[in-house]
Amino acid sequence: MKMVELIQQRRSCRIYTDQQVETEKQEELKKILLWSPTSKNNRPWEFVFVDDKLLLQQLSECKPHGASFIKNAPLAIVILADPEKSDVWIEDTSIAAAFLQAGAEDIGLGSCWVQIRNRFHASGIKASEQVKMLLNAPTHLETACIITIGYKGKERRPYNNDDLLNERIHHNTF
Ligand SMILES: Cc1cc2nc3c(=O)[nH]c(=O)nc-3n(C[C@H](O)[C@H](O)[C@H](O)COP(=O)(O)O)c2cc1C
Q1: Ligand 1 atom nearest to CA at 67
Q2: Which atom of ligand 1 is nearest to the CA of 119?
Q3: Residue in 103, 110, 109, 45 with CA at minimum distance from that of residue 78
Q4: Which tens digits make up the pLDDT trace of 1-49?
Q5: Per-residue b/e over 8-20, b at no fewer than 16 CB within 10 Å?
Q6: From ligand 1's centre to the CA of 112, what distance in Å?
Q7: Is 58 within 8 Å of 122 (Cβ atoms)?
Q8: Total-model pTM
Q9: How far is Cα of residue 9 from the mean position of the Cα atoms in its chain?
Q10: Residue 19 per-residue DSSP state
């Protein structure tokens, strides 16, 4: 499939089948993450592949809204970074996450982004700290997001031309 078609078809997937993501597919996803570009090639990120059921359940409670479906995903990839390694770690982790989602779609998997940075656990602590505690991650890291991955349990309508906000595109000047 051409990249443009893949991007048109990708929709957030929050419902997955019970099928596990095969090791070979996980290996492809690891390469995609590690090939993603970073400013000055600093590569400040760290990626944690989580398929442990208890851990998935605990991650699904890292913030009150928009994370509950993590517990039913066969795989969640937590994306963290060391802010000391790059002043643009947010961009670097976001690009890795976006590449990951496109790559997952390309190999027949659904995915959804769960925002962690700037979000809070029900107790009031940062969701990033809660996630790091669960993963036993080094304290100097920040958690950017979690990407859930799995076989789609429900197909969603792909985007079409009517969905385009064409007025947001400008030529030369506003
Ligand atoms: C930066 C970012 C943060 C997001 N955070 C969440 C989230 O915490 N929980 C969630 O269920 N979806 C989250 N999403 C998914 C969006 O809700 C989704 O991409 C948007 O509604 C458009 O739908 P689509 O992905 O099907 O095109 C996030 C997406 C982005 C890009």
Answers
A1: 9
A2: 8
A3: 45
A4: 899 999 999 999 999 999 999 999 999 999 999 999 999 999 999 999 9
A5: eebbebbebeeee
A6: 7
A7: no
A8: 0.98
A9: 17
A10: P
Distance (Å) from CA 153 to ligand 1 centroid: 17
The CATH number, out of the four listed (3.90.370.10, 3.40.109.10, 3.40.50.1100, 3.30.40.10), of the domain defined by the range 17-154: 3.40.109.10
Minimal-distance CA residue to ligand 1 atom 6: 114
Distances in whole angstroms, Cα of residue 100 to Cα of each of 26, 103, 122, 161: 11, 5, 28, 25
How confident is the model at residue 151, as a pLDDT? 98
3-state secondary structure of 62: coil
State which of 111, 115, 128, 148 you would mutate to test the pocket of ligand 1, scoring each by most atoms of that ligand within 8 A of its C-beta.
115
Atom 27 of ligand 1 has which residue's CA nearest to it?
11
Ligand 1 atom 28: residue of nearest CA: 113
Indicate which residue's Cα is closest to atom 9 of ligand 1: 66
